[in-house]
Amino acid sequence: MKISETFHSIQGEGHLTGKPMFFIRTQGCSVKCPIREVCDQPESLVFRGGTEYAPAALAEMALAAVGPRGWVSITGGEPLDQPDFDELVAACRKLGLFINVQTSGLRRVNAPWDWCTVSPKAPVDELAILFAQELKVVYTGQSLEELRAYYERFSAWNYYLQPCADASGTNTDATIEKVFELNRLGMQWEFSAQWHKYLGVR
Ligand code: SF4
Q1: Are 156 and 134 in contact (CB under 8 A)?
Q2: φ, ψ for residue 127 (rounded to 5)?
Q3: pLDDT at position 191, please?
Q4: What is 70-136 written as a DSSP string?
Q5: Which pLDDT belongs to residue 201?
Q6: pTM value?
Q7: pLDDT-based confidence at 95, cuts 50/70/90?
Q8: Atom 3 (ligand 1): residue with closest C-alpha?
Q9: Domain with 23 in it: what CATH number?
Q10: Cα 182 vs. chain centroid, distance in angstroms?
Q11: What is the domain count for the chain?
Q12: Which pLDDT band, with edges at 50, 70 and 90, does 140 fall under?
């Protein structure tokens, strides 16, 4: 399968922050994404490029990094664009690794995950997945109605708003204020920092 990069670090976002993980970033993203211009991972967006790996080889690399019962984060790009996605999950499971899938939620994830993070780039009506351990919305000024629709119609254990960075800076204050506003309206969203950026690690 086409891989943009692999690396061993700590999870910097969401509920699993601080957990050591082996990251497998797939190459290519077909999502019509409203924040494509400011995507954190521009080098992983196009389908040409990347390096071919066999799923079993990736699983072995992950095991060597994190050890038995460690975590693998399969991210992108959009991992569900990869035809070998299920095979990669199966190879990791066979070695006893835990699996965090990070997806935009526009396709069903059939392979069994341990922790699914959906970061939607479309209204909730257009998602193919309506349950995950965490929903992580990159805040770009979405309306209260749109955020309420995610909260009411997407079933998650954790709802996060994460700031967005563009050429003019990062909208951290506006994101925190929006979290507070949502809380006052009875929606228990939380703020997701990207701690790896503050720490200067991958
Ligand atoms: S869906 Fe994710 S990987 Fe694809 S362009 Fe948007 S932010 Fe980037």
Answers
A1: yes
A2: -80, 145
A3: 97
A4: -EEEEESS-GGG-TTHHHHHHHHHHTT-EEEEEE-SSS---SPPSEEEE--SS-GGG-S--EEEEEE
A5: 85
A6: 0.95
A7: very high
A8: 77
A9: 3.20.20.70
A10: 22
A11: 1
A12: very high
Q: Name the closest-CA residue to atom 7, ligand 1.
A: 39
On the question of pLDDT at 199 being above 90, the answer is no
Mutate to test the pocket of ligand 1, among 36, 102, 138 (most ligand atoms within 8 A of CB): 36
Q: Using the atom order of ligand 1, give the atom closest to the CA of residue 29.
A: 4
Looking at residue 40, its pLDDT comes to 85
Residue ranges making up the domain that contains 12: 2-199
What distance in angstroms lies between residue 184's CA and the mean position of ligand 1's atoms?
30
**Cα 40 to Cα 1, 47, 132, 158, distances in angstroms:** 21, 16, 22, 22
Taking 90 as the threshold, does the pLDDT of residue 85 lie above it?
yes
Cα-to-centroid distance, 106 and ligand 1 (Å): 12
Residue where the block lists tokens 């990251």: 23
